[in-house]
Amino acid sequence: MSKSHHTDRGFKNNYAASVNKSLPEVLRWQWNRMRRHLPPDPQLPTPTQVPELEFLHVNARAGASMMPTVTWIGHATSLIQADGLNVLTDPIFSARASPLQWLGPRRAQPPGVTLHALPRIDVVVVSHNHYDHLDRGSIQALARQPGGEPLFLVPLGLRRWMTRAGIRRAVELDWWERHDHAGVEFHLTPAQHWSARSLTDRNKTLWGAWSVLGVDCHWFFSGDTGYSADFSDTRQRFAAQQAAGHGGGFDVALIAVGACEPRWFMQGQHVDPAEAVRIHVDLGAKHSVGVHWGTFALADEPLDHPLHVIATARAQHGVAADAFTLMALGETRRVPRRLPSSCCGSIPR
């Protein structure tokens, strides 16, 4: 059966004909960046916190007693511990988000948890193939971790890249497909973006978000995305599993808030903080955390932009201050376990 997001040349979005920018548009953006010396320096440093390494390692070995947690490592990389699994999102630990480690966007802060300080990772989820989300060095280092390589879950078309990188345990999924691992459901769900690692492979591999459903925790990771109805669709898709009697909506959602300016160039592919809060509302998430900021200067806004505007973004959508927050690099948040017919409070700090 043909699928509407499949094309003869690769893949496309559900609600936007294309988010690709023409060469003149790219040159216009880059010229304006140089002329105006963008992005400006941040006024505030990206907040950091000493990681709770002992707790993370003890929690990693706790099996069914594992406390659900989220640890922000930097950019779109987070460690989620839930339902007995240690899961990494879009791991990048390299100094640059680039195919070359001497050229390209440089990391402004070190990872909140170093690669070698992590507990053993069971699963890695990848949202798409851009260099700031799919980093060869980080992927290969994780594959060499003591105890064996993790399971890598990737969008359709990326298994070939993983195999060429030496990865043996990779499963690729299409939108709405599911892979179960150790009793946890991993669903690749639609997002609005694009893919490319060179000038000749645009949209040849798929992109997406991840909806992960376990017994103790339901969590969501947006990857990169523009705003679309895909997130209302996701909420509807899991409505039966997330009914009030089954514990409600996503316990925590990790939603991109950075690399969003200028809007004329970025809007189709990257949400701004106000649109990120709107995604939180569309998903019906109990709590959300803004990610994809404060680490690499990829767009025209300063690295601290979300710190200045997130309160206004929440107010615009009537969202409580503790319902959509930002984290410090290295910070770990405990997430209340799902309980049928329960209403969870704010994530303990």
Descriptive account of the structure:
The chain has helices at 23-36, 53-60, 136-143, 159-164, 230-237, 263-266, 273-283, 305-316, and strands spanning 6-7, 10-11, 69-74, 77-82, 85-89, 123-125, 151-155, 170-173, 178-181, 184-189, 209-213, 218-221, 252-256, 288-291, 324-326, 332-334. With 349 residues, the protein is an alpha/beta fold. The protein has a single domain, classed as Metallo-beta-lactamase, Chain A. The strands form 3 sheets. Strands 8-7-6-5-4-3-16 form a 7-stranded mixed sheet. A 7-stranded mixed sheet has the order 9-10-11-12-13-14-15, with helices on one face. Strands 1-2 form a two-stranded antiparallel ribbon. The termini are far apart.
Tell me the CATH architecture: 4-Layer Sandwich
Count the E strands: 16
- The CATH class, by name, is Alpha Beta
Q: Count structural domains.
A: 1
Order of helices and strands: EEHHEEEEHEHEEEEEHEHHEHEE
- CATH third-tier fold name: Metallo-beta-lactamase, Chain A
Helix content: 10-25%
CATH homolog superfamily:
Ribonuclease Z/Hydroxyacylglutathione hydrolase-like
Q: Look at the helices and sheets and give the structural class.
A: alpha/beta
Low-confidence stretches: 342-349
Main sheet characteristics: 7 strands, mixed
Cα-based radius of gyration, to the nearest Å? 19 Å
Terminal Cα span:
47 Å
Task: Provide the fold topology.
Elements: E1 6-7, E2 10-11, H1 23-36, H2 53-60, E3 69-74, E4 77-82, E5 85-89, E6 123-125, H3 136-143, E7 151-155, H4 159-164, E8 170-173, E9 178-181, E10 184-189, E11 209-213, E12 218-221, H5 230-237, E13 252-256, H6 263-266, H7 273-283, E14 288-291, H8 305-316, E15 324-326, E16 332-334
Parallel strand pairs: 5-6, 6-7, 7-8, 12-13, 13-14, 14-15
Antiparallel strand pairs: 1-2, 3-4, 3-16, 4-5, 9-10, 10-11, 11-12
